[in-house]
């Protein structure tokens, strides 16, 4: 059986580790990672996540495509005055670009590690991924990776990976670190 080419958009190495393990175990895919995350703030956080991914990818010999321009201003322009819809905008930005890269690279499928997090809007990710795939002529591989949540945490701890405490955007950082009482004011 010929293995299909799969591009997996990676938000961070800890979210990649368990889904990648299970996708590789299927032995159906030739997998390449893709980094594009213009939402991550501050710059040091972005760099730390990317460095962690590069180290892990090198260790396991996973090839990566990296779009490393720090485009925070563009993300903020898209989200300004639409903060309540920021996840939709963010998912669309990343998945659309992943679909473009997958189509241009001759991939059969693309997917995302965003489907691993129990904190992300899973149905919305699927909807956007499928729409972007249709627009670009490449299939979106939907998998509910949340079942591997605890396994991924343990594996990333065993690897001594840097593990961030928020999704990446400035808004999620605020929600994570601002005391609950201050948020209600």
Report helical residue fraction: 40-55%
What distance lies between the first and last C-alpha atoms, to the nearest angstrom?
59 Å
Secondary structure: number of strands:
5
Q: Helix-strand pattern, N to C?
A: EHEHEHHEHEHHH
Report the β-strand fraction as a percent range.
5-15%
Number of domains: 1
* Main beta sheet strand tally, sense and closure: 5 strands, parallel
- The CATH architecture name reads 3-Layer(aba) Sandwich
Walkthrough of the structure:
The chain is globular, with a radius of gyration of 16 Å. Helix 2 (about 45-60) links the parallel strand 2 and strand 3. About 50% of the residues lie in helices and about 10% in strands. The protein has one domain (about 5-185): Rossmann fold, CATH 3.40.50.620. The protein is built from eight helices and five strands. It has a five-stranded parallel sheet, with helices on both faces. With about 180 residues, the chain is of the alpha/beta class. The model has no long low-confidence stretch (mean pLDDT about 95).
Fold blueprint:
Layout: E1 4-9, H1 13-26, E2 29-35, H2 43-60, E3 64-66, H3 72-79, H4 86-104, E4 109-112, H5 122-136, E5 139-140, H6 149-158, H7 170-177, H8 180-184
Parallel strand pairs: 1-2, 1-4, 2-3, 4-5
Helix pairs in contact: 1-6, 4-5
């Amino acid at each position: 059986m010929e293995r299909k080419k799969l591009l997996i958009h990676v938000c961070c190495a800890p979210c990649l580790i368990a889904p990648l393990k299970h996708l590789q175990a299927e032995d159906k895919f030739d997998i390449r990672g893709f980094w594009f995350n213009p939402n991550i703030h501050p710059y040091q956080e972005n760099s730390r996540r990317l460095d962690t991914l590069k180290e892990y990818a090198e260790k396991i010999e996973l090839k990566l495509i990296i779009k490393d321009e720090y485009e925070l201003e563009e993300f903020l322009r898209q989200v300004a005055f639409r903060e309540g819809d920021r996840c939709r905008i963010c998912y669309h930005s990343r998945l659309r670009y992943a679909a473009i890269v997958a189509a241009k690279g001759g991939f059969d499928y693309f997917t995302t590690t965003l489907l691993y997090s129990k904190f992300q809007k899973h149905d919305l990710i699927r909807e956007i991924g499928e729409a972007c795939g249709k627009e670009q002529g490449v299939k979106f591989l939907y998998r509910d990776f949340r079942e591997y949540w605890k396994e991924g945490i343990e594996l990333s701890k065993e690897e001594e990976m840097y593990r961030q405490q928020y999704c990446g955007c400035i808004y999620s950082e605020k929600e994570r670190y601002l005391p609950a009482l201050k948020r209600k004011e």
